[in-house]
Amino acid sequence: MKKYILFSSALFALIACTQVNSTGEKNITLGDDTLASVEISTSKVDALNALAEMDEETEPSKLLFKASGIEPGWFAEFYTDKLRLLVEYGKDSLIMDNQKFEGLDNKDGFIFGVQGEKDLNKNVVINIDNKSCIDAGSGDKKDRAVVVFYKGKTYKGCGSFVK
Q1: CA-based Rg of the chain, rounded to a whole angstrom?
Q2: Alpha-carbon torsion 10, 16, 18, 23, what sign?
Q3: What pLDDT is attached to residue 73?
Q4: What pLDDT does 23 receive?
Q5: Is the CB of residue 101 less than 8 Å from the CB of residue 112?
Q6: Burial, 5: exposed, middle or buried (Cβ in 10 Å; 0-12, 13-18, 19+)?
Q7: Residue 43: what pLDDT?
Q8: Count of CB atoms within 10 A of residue 103's CB?
């Protein structure tokens, strides 16, 4: 819906500029008087193409993997370009944008870590081991065993890939 509104607004703005002459100049008039002349460097078609390309470049983030555990309650979500971590039953959280999770489905396991940050609260290590795990909260069998180290605490649980 947001894309539709943005596209509609841009289209309306481009269509509203009807007084562009062949030299690329727009005259702003009031009655018969010309108030200003503005040089237009982009055609309506070029502007629409640029808007369409801009829309194609912003691909929505896709959820790849979810993990959770209890005592204390926590969960982590791995997206194509970010990590979302909530710990202590939601009292604390961390969102890390612009991340890459290539190899997340590696048969040998996966380790994600950010250490050495000046802000120690952003240091995190997540170890995803390729062995099945029984979720302590639901009793469901999950694909991977997960251990999270964050702010000096260890959180254990299970995780699965989102299909």
Answers
A1: 26
A2: negative
A3: 94
A4: 53
A5: yes
A6: exposed
A7: 58
A8: 11
CB atoms within 10 A of CB 85: 20
Structure token digits, residue 144? 């991977």
* Token couple for 90: 């939601």
Closest CA relative to residue 130, chosen from 145, 115, 147, 114: 145
Entry field: residues in the chain? 163
**Burial classification of residue 88, based on how many CB atoms lie within 10 Å of its CB (0-12 exposed, 13-18 middle, 19 or more buried):** middle
pTM score: 0.60
Q: Are 114 and 124 in contact (CB under 8 A)?
A: yes
Residue 32 above 80 pLDDT? no
Average pLDDT, stretch 5-34?
54
Amino acid, single-letter form, for residue 131: K
Q: Is 150 exposed, middle or buried (0-12, 13-18, 19+ CB in 10 A)?
A: buried
- Quote the DSSP letter at residue 32: T
